């Protein structure tokens, strides 16, 4: 049995962290669905930035720019065209799993991520424009983004909460989701609104690689993942969730993001081998997916009690790593990175629009 199928048997969904028009046109996405056990897809501005810069969207940009469309509207038109096709490719999975799996994701502009009203308005508009039931709107799980997550869930907009880095970040995101569901129940609305909480992994190990002893290299992300999974399972067992589940709600699923190995000394399937767990999702870039399919191995399921995470985190603290402060820095840096990628994307669209319409 291939490792990708083994994760599926374990109860973990495997999603692709990429989308391009070429991926759709070539039939490669369908191959991943058919042969690699891929059951969903995520995207972000950086992914589209690379694809558009490579020239794969020149004809579409020329046509839309000639119509006078502004750059942000042009980008969302391009992205939604692709994501509609991807959503249709996963529609059978979405239907077969009664909406648990088979999702694709589109991110709101990070420039409005700290404005609750604008974010919720954009989330509603983008979902309506896409016209697909299996589309998540990605909203950052920063302190400023949490109110928008609650409001979007209350409004019935499925949300992929992104930019989470720790168990504390996850708890805050889950709380925002639960508040939105609780308000829906109080208002006699359906308690079924899809959501995932995306926790980033590899950046932890990159951040401390040159600061810890050799024996601690490439161990911090897994420890953080174990603590987060422990928090996830504790919430599943809580009285608060049991009441909501009894009212018909569905659990917000935990998703592992940033799962390509950055350390050349570490196994290329590190964050797939070590993060297998029921009721979770692992979203991976193409290169990592192919490597895992070719020669990867699924490890034992993650323990629900956090395993040896506390000891590993304590060892990092003794080595001088302030783990809580690092979580805050990683989130802030990632938020800045998303803004930079967005601005770069808008600049590329401007340049290509001008060149192609000249």
Q: Overall pLDDT, averaged?
A: 94
Largest sheet geometry = 8 strands, parallel
Report the C-alpha radius of gyration, rounded. Answer: 20 Å
- SS field, number of helical segments: 17
**Widest sheet, order of strands:** 2-1-8-7-6-5-4-3
List the helices and strands and how they pair.
Blueprint: H1 3-10, E1 12-17, H2 21-25, H3 28-35, E2 38-42, H4 45-53, H5 58-66, H6 71-89, H7 91-96, E3 104-107, H8 116-130, E4 135-140, H9 146-154, E5 159-164, H10 167-186, E6 195-200, H11 202-208, H12 220-236, H13 239-246, E7 253-257, H14 270-273, E8 280-284, H15 286-295, H16 309-318, H17 323-357
Parallel strand pairs: 1-2, 1-8, 3-4, 4-5, 5-6, 6-7, 7-8
Report on this structure.
- There is one protein chain.
- The chain is an alpha/beta fold.
- It has helices at 3-10, 21-25, 28-35, 45-53, 58-66, 71-89, 91-96, 116-130, 146-154, 167-186, 202-208, 220-236, 239-246, 270-273, 286-295, 309-318, 323-357; strands spanning 12-17, 38-42, 104-107, 135-140, 159-164, 195-200, 253-257, 280-284.
- It has an eight-stranded parallel β-sheet.
Compose a concise summary of this entry.
The chain is an alpha/beta fold and 358 residues long. The chain contains 17 helices and eight strands.
Task: Note the main attributes of this structure.
single chain, 358 residues, alpha/beta, eight-stranded parallel sheet, 12% strand, globular
């Amino acid at each position: 049995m291939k490792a990708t199928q083994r994760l599926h048997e374990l109860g973990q969904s495997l999603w692709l962290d990429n989308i391009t028009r070429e991926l759709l046109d070539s039939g490669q996405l369908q191959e991943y669905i058919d042969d690699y056990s891929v059951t969903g897809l995520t995207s972000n501005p950086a992914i589209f930035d690379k694809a558009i810069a490579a020239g794969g969207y020149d004809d579409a940009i020329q046509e839309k720019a000639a119509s006078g469309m502004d750059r942000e509207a042009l980008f969302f038109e391009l992205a939604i065209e692709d994501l509609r096709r991807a959503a249709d490719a996963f529609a059978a999975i979405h239907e077969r799993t009664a909406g648990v799996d088979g999702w694709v994701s589109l991110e709101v502009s990070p420039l409005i991520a700290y404005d609750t009203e604008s974010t919720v308005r954009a989330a509603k508009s983008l979902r309506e424009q896409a016209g697909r039931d299996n589309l998540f709107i990605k909203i950052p799980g920063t302190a400023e983004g949490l109110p928008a997550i609650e409001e979007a869930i209350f409004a019935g907009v499925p949300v992929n909460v992104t930019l989470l880095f720790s168990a504390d970040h996850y708890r805050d995101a889950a709380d925002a989701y639960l508040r939105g569901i609780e308000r829906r129940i109080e208002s006699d609305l359906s308690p079924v609104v899809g959501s995932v909480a995306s926790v980033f992994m590899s950046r932890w190990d990159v951040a401390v690689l040159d600061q810890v002893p050799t024996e601690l290299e490439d161990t911090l992300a897994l420890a953080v993942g174990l603590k987060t999974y422990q928090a996830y399972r504790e919430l599943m067992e809580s009285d608060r969730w049991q009441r909501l589940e009894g009212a018909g709600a569905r659990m917000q699923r935990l998703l592992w993001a940033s799962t390509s190995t950055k350390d050349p000394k570490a196994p290329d399937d590190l964050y797939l081998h070590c993060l297998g767990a029921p009721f979770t999702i692992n979203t991976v870039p193409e290169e990592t997916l192919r490597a895992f399919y070719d020669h990867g191995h699924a490890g034992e399921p993650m323990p629900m009690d956090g395993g040896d995470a506390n000891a590993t985190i304590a060892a990092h603290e003794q080595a001088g790593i302030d783990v809580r402060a690092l979580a805050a820095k990683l989130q802030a840096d990632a938020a800045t990175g998303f803004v930079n990628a967005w601005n770069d994307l808008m600049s590329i669209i401007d340049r290509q629009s001008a060149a192609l319409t000249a």
